[in-house]
Amino acid sequence: MSQQLTKLVTAEELFEMGDIGRCELIKGEIIHMAPASAEHGDVSAELLRLIANHVRANQLGKVFAAETGFVIARNPDTTRAPDVAFLRKERVPAKFKRGFFDGPPDLAVEVVSPSDTHSELAAKVDEWLSAGTISVWVVDPPNRTIEVSRAQNQIRRYSVRDILNDEPLLPGFSLSLKDLFQT
Q: Are 37 and 114 in contact (CB under 8 A)?
């Protein structure tokens, strides 16, 4: 039986490919993804707006939209693109280099898509945290919840009755899940 070898791709090679559609690089392999649903896009945009407004008003750093690539592992390379990402001010370079950001965001927000499985989401959260992301939010629009994961298995689940206001990366930030999921 012959074994077909697949050439692994680096983050730099993926970047140079240009627009090949929505994808991420997982351990050197390009994984294509379907476009997001309207609900997914609506919730992602609202979170981006709320977080970005707070970050800018308080000069906390930079917020990035979906499809911004973050290289979180090398040899083989993994480049993930969260729905919303945040970098603390002290980690923002004076000038961004061409290509993906080399390193994880401090906050990665993943909005659940209908095709996401629980095990895939859990693996993605583990990848972010292992790479050095401080806080990962998994936002589930159909269930109207946000699960916040941090190092040392600190997990907190917020429901539509709650206000998320204990994010240490975003001092003073307050998010009513009831308001978020009414958009």
A: yes
What Å distances lie between residue 76 and 5, 18, 62, 106, 123, CA to CA? 14, 20, 28, 22, 17
Tens-place pLDDT, residues 45-69: 999 999 999 999 999 999 999 889 9
SS3 label, residue 159: coil
Cα distance between residue 53 and residue 31, in whole Å: 32
Beta partners for 146? 139, 158
| Helix, strand, or coil (residue 152) | coil
Distance CA 77, CA 12 (A): 9
Place of tokens 């970005």: 52
The domain limits of the chain are 11-180
d(CA 80, CA 20): 15
The residue type found at 126 is: D
Q: Is the dihedral of CA 46, 115, 101, 88 positive or negative?
A: positive
Q: CA–CA separation, 114 vs 142, rounded Å?
A: 9
Fold of 11-180: tt1808, chain A (3.90.1570)
- Give 78-118 pLDDT, tens digit per residue: 999 999 999 999 999 999 999 999 999 999 999 998 888 88
Classify residue 109 by burial, with Cβ atoms within 10 Å: 0-12, 13-18, 19+.
buried
